[in-house]
Structure formats: structure tokens, C-alpha cells
Design brief:
Layout (H helix, E strand, L loop, with lengths): L2 E10 L9 E12 L3 E11 L10 H7 L12 H11 L4 E3 L2 H9 L10 E3 H8 L7 H7 L10 H21 L7 E4 L13 E4 L8
Parallel strand pairs: 1-4, 4-5, 6-7
Antiparallel strand pairs: 1-2, 2-3
Helix pairs in contact: 4-6
Length: 207
């Protein structure tokens, strides 16, 4: 059965939603169906202004190629997230959804995350002894990932990945909606409201 989903990705100044800040948001709204079918409906992308006095660490700039000066004149984080909320549909898809949703959840807007899918969790459930990071998972399934760690590039790859993993999970009877993975090598630091937490033990490192 076909469904309408919104794939999102946020780039940030660091890993801690309590002290770090969103720098870029991207999303694609699309129809996904059997056989890896994907029909794009629309796109959303914006830089996000940083609070006064905050700069992007050099290490993050090296990773994302986003500089502090790129964000000058960008929307305030609340405005950007309200725009994303207007754009998004009922089902949110993200690779490592607890990370993206943790940054969205700490802002003072009513962003609906009741229905979400984490493609990283899907990867762990389908291939528990393989790496679930975006780049190696995309490589495993023959998906191009150009310019990793830029929000729209990651969204494009995650959309294709979801279309493939969705069918594999459903064929094998794997529950994946609202599921997040907790594991020794990557413990959960944020659990989205209503999430189902699954604990997985692997035989080899695959962060």
C-alpha cells in the first residue's frame, strides 16, 4: 500500500540538544509504495540562524561544510521549525530519528512526532550485524549518497533507503513504526514520545 511520508534531516553545531543548535533543516515529502516506488511531492530546505555569540565549531564545519557566516540572515529556529511543521505530513522519517527529533522537541512548538520511522532502527532490525550508519547502509543497498552530512543530500538518500527497507521489513513481518533501538555501543539519549524501545545486542561493532 502506498503512503505519504516526510523525510527530514537536521544539521547541528554538536550532539547535545540541550546546549547545541540546529544549523540546517531539509525535508522531502513523497509518496512511497511497493517495489521501491518513490514519487516526490515537494522539498523544504533552510539554514537556521544561531543565537548571538554562537559560532559553528571548526570540526563541524569540516564535516558539514557549513560556516557561521552562511547562517547570517537565516530564519530563527522557531520560525524554521514552524515552517517545517506546516510542510510535513503525518509520518516523519529520519535516519537516527531520536537525534533529529531531540533537537526538534526541545523547541517551544507543537511539532507532531506521534508517527515516525527511524531508518537506522530499521537497518538494525533487518541487518543486526551490519553497520546501521547512513553511508554504509546506503552503500549496502546501492544508494548514492553524495555530500554526506548536508541535510538535503542525507534526506534524498534516506528516502530511497526507506522505500527499500520498508518492503523488506513488511515482507519479513518486522515491526518498525515508532521503534527506536537501544544498544550497548550506542545507548539512547532521547526517546521520542510514544516510541517503542528495542534493545539489540550485536556480535560486531556497527555504529
Amino acid at each position: 500500500m502506498n503512503e505519504i511520508v516526510t523525510v527530514i534531516d537536521v544539521e547541528t553545531t554538536g550532539l547535545d540538544p540541550a546546549t547545541d543548535h540546529i544549523t540546517e533543516i531539509a525535508a522531502i515529502r513523497a509518496e512511497v509504495g511497493p517495489g521501491g516506488y518513490v514519487r516526490e511531492i515537494g522539498r523544504f530546505q533552510t539554514y537556521v540562524a544561531l543565537p548571538d555569540g554562537v559560532e559553528i565549531p571548526e570540526l563541524i564545519t569540516e564535516l558539514t561544510r557549513i560556516k557561521t557566516e552562511d547562517l547570517r540572515g537565516a530564519p530563527h529556529v522557531i520560525s524554521a521549525l514552524i515552517s517545517l511543521d506546516w510542510f510535513a505530513g503525518d509520518t516523519i522519517i529520519a535516519h537516527n530519528a531520536p537525534f533529529d527529533l531531540s533537537f526538534v522537541a526541545r523547541r517551544e512548538i507543537d511539532f507532531d512526532t506521534d508517527n515516525f520511522v527511524c531508518t537506522r532502527a530499521m537497518s538494525r532490525l533487518i541487518d543486526p550485524n551490519e553497520s546501521a550508519s547512513l553511508a554504509p547502509t546506503c552503500e549496502r543497498y546501492g544508494i548514492a549518497l553524495n555530500g554526506h552530512h548536508r541535510a538535503m543530500n542525507d534526506v534524498e538518500a534516506t528516502l530511497q533507503l526507506y522505500a527499500i527497507l520498508r518492503e523488506k521489513a513488511e515482507v519479513n513481518g518486522i515491526t518498525y513504526r515508532n521503534v527506536v533501538i537501544d544498544s550497548e555501543e550506542r545507548p539512547l539519549t532521547y526517546v521520542p514520545p510514544g516510541a517503542i524501545v528495542r534493545t539489540i545486542t550485536k556480535t560486531k561493532e556497527a555504529a
